[in-house]
Amino acid sequence: MMVNELLYIKRNAERNLKIKNRREIGFNLFKYRISLQLKTTEHCRILGKFHT
User: pTM of the full predicted structure?
Assistant: First the structure.
């Protein structure tokens, strides 16, 4: 998932008045972003092992 897609999802969620707790959405996006970063660094580490 690209960052643009995340921003698009976040904007749509914030625009949706049915969603009351925006802070919760922000927190979930934040957690998702962290897990995504951890996954990418993990992949880099694995790739690094293959190169060395």
Answer: 0.38
Contacts of 19 (CB under 8 A, 6+ apart): 13, 25
Q: Return the SS3 of 24.
A: helix
Query: 9, exposed or middle or buried, with CB in 10 Å at 0-12, 13-18, 19+?
Result: middle
In angstroms, the CA 8 to CA 11 distance is 5
Q: What confidence score (pLDDT) does residue 21 get?
A: 66
51 φ/ψ sector (left φ>0, alpha ψ -120 to 50, else beta): alpha
